[in-house]
Design goal:
about 375 residues, 6-stranded mixed beta sheet, two-stranded antiparallel sheet, 17 helices
Length: about 375
Amino acid sequence: MNIITTNAALAEYCQAAKSAPFICIDTEFMRESTFYSILCLIQVATCQQEAIIDPLADDLDLAPLIDILMDKSITKVLHAARQDMEIFYQICGAVPGPIFDTQIAAMALGFGESVGYGSLVKGRLGLDLDKGARFTDWSRRPLSDKQLSYALADVTHLQSLYEPLVAELEDKNRLSWVLEEMAPQMEEALYNFEPEDAWRRLKVRNPKKPYLAALKAAAAWRERVAQQKDVPRRRILKDDAIYDLAQQRPRDLKALTKLRAIPRGFEKSSHAEALVDAIRAAIDNADDYAPAAPKVQHMPPSLGPRVEMLRTLLRLRTEVDGIAPRLVATTRDIDQIAAFGEKAKVQALKGWRRDIFGQDAIDMLAGKIALRLDGEDVVVERVD
């Protein structure tokens, strides 16, 4: 097993990998007690060679690997790429690409929603993966041969999956679907933890500017402190406390002590005064600082039957074509179509999704399509 712990070995591997059209990549990391993920292993594989890179090795410079991650001529093959991409953004300072996510590819070929790597390997290759090392503390050294073999299997089988998946997608004219679905994963905003945008992760419970300004200020303060201390956000303050701060808007430490969601004694901490100052400044300048209130969309009443019929239609259409339903229409898409019909601004009414489901959904709402039982089967039929 090739374990890379030196700059010379990493440079040699990456030099050879530059000639490959694709590279399979996976990571092992820890994040239970930190804000940023602790990168513990990077598994890589090309047609020529597999390897495990140990980023915790003394003085290891990942620059040669970063060059490959940012090389647009080399496809990076991952499974369920979201968390890996976040880590790579941290070490590259930019979003790597292009990528190919085998989980999304599997959805386009009917392997269900968010299919796991083990299930995909079993379904496509007929192999059972050993899950014995699944809960390893990857930051500990040394790692056993069993643990390293478990980690390496995540890229070993990616090689066997990738090219047949691409071939089948091309044969069914679905490769463009997968590339379209992966496009949002290339957006930098997905991985950039900008403190002033931290409020977007929370639910806005009040559209008034003072509330919005305080919510934004409190969330930004927590994000900065969590990043500085490199601890999870909840270790600084829980979400309930942020909502309480936005609602009550304390202007001094005495008012802060009266908030039920603020931990007892927090007002004595070194950060409490900075938090109160941030909230006070935000509400004093609410007109300029507060974000725009999200638009509230009032849904028509009694949508339940429409939603259920559309879900059934979606399931029937995707079963016929062998596609995971969520790739065609999300729960929100279904709700929006049920409420607003052709006026719904959703992906399910555009492009290939409309061909598979969207147009039929509109026709069903217009009474042009009906569902009926044929024995034990539900069938779709056009209404003259």
